[in-house]
Amino acid sequence: MTIHNSHVDHAPPNTFEEIVQMFIESQNIDTTSIMFESASDHKYGTYF
Fold this sequence. Notes:
The chain is α+β, with helices and mostly antiparallel strands. The protein contains 1 helix and 2 strands; from the N terminus they run αββ. The longest helix is centred in the middle third of the chain and has 11 residues, at 16-26.
């Protein structure tokens, strides 16, 4: 099984997106101030 032939998510209302958002909020993470590296082209940006 690879990332390209599988899909995993959580049942609503606790979808993966919601779980991540709750974590970000609980840890007081400011996603606008973090630089991210793209896995595909190794470029940096601030889009989360």
